[in-house]
Specification:
heterodimer, A: mainly alpha, flat, B: alpha/beta, 10 strands
Chain lengths: 373, 247
């Protein structure tokens, strides 16, 4: 008789068919209680610590106690979840005693879910407490240096006006980069032997400017161009030199984004367009690039966010952007709170954009599921 | 004089020779069906005629003009030779009307109203004018393929190449596409079809060419090729088709 390659059908995989009781969530529940307890204890301790620090500085007012100890109330959430996890464990044990494996599985799963929620919220509390201690430790050194409210308030107008330069630089650069990146990408994909030189040029450009740190490109353009002594270059204002340097750097990244998008359009689309008599450039213009553009949105915005942050580097060539303004304020007040303002502004301007990218990706995925795109 | 003359065409992909000295003549208003097992070079031959593949030897002539090899205006050739693909290849970001109008406007230089008039004339013929503003993904495979055919016809080509145009379709959608091709044949459209639909080839073709080992192994009128093939390989191929219940 020939061997049975898959074994005996009656016993094969029997261990998987046997209904198995769910694992005991006891350890996880215990961990949830521990972490919650730790968060409460650490919360009480750090509130004492902050109160002492405020008292020593003479800034303590009685109503602050509500704020200081009230926030430990957040710990109610992990505590309640830990208790739910415990009850779920009990129900699991009860169901098992009655031989109801399905009910036991549901109870155990609820118990594990509650325990994980508890642990996650408790960790969030730990992070908040750590942040509080970080700000108030060493006689509030960090808090005073980076979060001095009066300085932040008084210099906000100056910073905001200087931030306008950052916004101008990245908006103009983004427009240039969109055009320049597409031009280089098309050169990179120029067909035939005639396109060889163009392709080489495009490759050399992307290799060099993706490799060069943007701060070095800023130096080369910002200090190099005026040094040529040619009147046209010498007359370029500093912000425009910054725009030029950032366009060169980010144009190299965006070229690759465009290229990936263009190459993701299937060859059969190009064959169809060419077979209708469209030239290479017409095929790119009407068939390939429009399809590529729909796919490159998210990676493109990713590069733009990098570009926006890099506008903080233009201070090295002497442009008075928000970061440079903040440094000036810092040396006048011996305090870095204005730098924090700049950081917050950069984060604030980022948030709507990332939400936009998320929305874009979700829409893309929806359309792909619907068979479009 | 034949409309299309193919002399000793050689096509290699790397070291793999697909066509080795293939000869074929197609006269005006003739419908030629290419048959043969998969990978025998039917599709490659069509792509070579349209200049979508560069060739390694021989030549293709259209109206006596050489249209293969270096220095040929491929864009001009493709204006006269339309091709329809197995996978439709409609442009997914354009609606049906835009798909049809793109080439007439950009290549032939028609104005928008002219191109639109031509597109609607063709759409009406296939009964799809109500779909003019739909995107291709809203159409069935059969509808997409018929739109792809009139997209090629909108360029008013001398020859239409059809590359297994029903192979990607659900069986119940095949007939609507075949009916359209039959109609074109009756109107005198010159066509070269690569096909696996033997029954259809038998009915519509003026000439059937059996491709084998990179050459036209046997050619002749369909009645003779299908009922009394002269050569051994053709007989074997047709026997397999009959055994599979496809003829």
């Amino acid at each position: 008789m020939s061997a049975r390659p898959f074994g005996n059908r009656a016993t094969r995989g029997a261990q998987w068919r046997e209904p198995r009781p769910p694992a005991d969530p006891f350890l996880l529940t215990l961990t949830a209680f521990f972490v919650t307890g730790g968060a409460v204890l650490l919360g009480a301790w750090s509130s004492d610590f902050i109160r002492a620090s405020l008292k020593a500085g003479g800034d303590y007012l009685p109503w602050m106690a509500w704020l200081l100890y009230g926030w430990i109330a957040i710990a109610i959430v992990p505590a309640a979840q830990a208790f739910r996890a415990y009850r779920g464990g009990r129900r699991r044990a009860e169901a098992l005693r009655q031989g109801d494996i399905a009910a036991a599985r549901i109870a155990a799963s609820e118990s594990r879910g509650a325990a994980w929620t508890s642990i996650a919220v408790a960790f969030f509390l730990f992070i908040l407490l750590g942040l509080g201690i970080f700000l108030f430790t060493n006689d509030r050194a960090v808090g005073r240096t980076f979060f001095s409210w009066p300085i932040m308030r008084d210099t906000f107008g100056l910073i905001l006006r200087a931030f306008g330069l950052n916004v101008t630089i990245f908006c103009v650069t983004e427009i240039f980069v969109l055009v320049w990146g597409l031009v280089v990408a098309l050169a990179r994909l120029a067909p035939g032997r005639a396109g060889g030189a163009l392709r080489m040029l495009a490759i050399a450009y992307t290799d060099i400017f993706r490799g060069l740190p943007s701060i070095i490109t800023l130096y080369l353009i910002g200090f190099g161009l005026p040094l040529t002594g040619l009147p046209i270059f010498a007359a370029i204002p500093t912000p425009w030199l910054a725009i030029l340097a950032l366009t060169l750097t980010y144009g190299a990244y965006v070229t690759e984004v465009y290229r990936a998008g263009i190459e993701s359009v299937h060859d059969s689309q190009i064959a169809a367009a060419r077979s209708l008599g469209l030239t290479h450039l017409q095929t790119m213009r009407y068939v390939v690039v429009p399809q590529a553009l729909r796919r490159i949105g998210p990676p493109l915005l990713n590069d733009f966010i990098g570009l926006q942050k890099d506008t903080a580097l233009v201070n090295v060539i002497g442009a008075i952007d928000a970061f440079n303004q903040a440094k000036i304020i810092a040396s006048n007040h011996f305090n870095l709170s204005a730098v924090t303002t700049v950081g917050l502004l950069f984060v604030l301007i980022l948030i709507p954009q990332t939400r936009f990218v998320d929305w874009w990706i979700a829409r893309d995925a929806r359309e792909r599921r619907a068979g479009r795109a | 004089m034949a409309l299309i003359e193919i002399d000793h065409l050689v096509k290699r992909f790397g070291t793999h020779t697909v066509l080795q000295g293939l000869d074929l003549n197609v006269t005006e208003h003739e419908v030629v069906c290419l048959i043969g097992s998969s990978g025998c070079g039917k599709s490659t031959l069509l792509r070579c005629i349209n200049g979508l593949e560069d060739i390694q030897g021989g030549e293709v002539r259209l109206h006596g003009d050489r249209v293969s090899g270096p220095g040929v205006d491929l864009n001009a050739l493709r204006r006269d030779v339309g091709i329809v693909f197995q996978s439709f290849n409609l442009f997914p970001h354009m609606n049906v009307l835009q798909n049809i109008m793109l080439a007439p406007r950009k290549v032939l230089g028609l104005t928008r109203p002219e191109a639109e008039e031509r597109a609607f004339l063709l759409l009406r013929r296939i009964g799809l004018e109500s779909k003019a503003h739909d995107y291709p993904d809203r159409l069935s495979g059969g509808q997409q393929q018929r739109v792809a055919i009139i997209r090629a016809l909108a360029m008013d080509p001398l020859v239409l190449l059809l590359d297994e145009v029903t192979s990607a379709l659900d069986p119940e959608l095949v007939s609507e596409v075949l009916a359209m091709i039959r109609e074109l044949a009756e109107e005198g459209m010159t066509m070269i079809l690569a096909t696996h639909e033997m029954g259809f080839a038998r009915e519509v073709a003026h000439k059937v060419c059996f491709l084998h080992e990179g050459k036209v192994h046997e050619e002749g009128p369909p009645e003779r090729i299908f009922s009394a093939p002269e050569r051994e390989r053709t007989r074997i191929f047709l026997k397999r088709i009959i055994d599979a219940g496809r003829l």
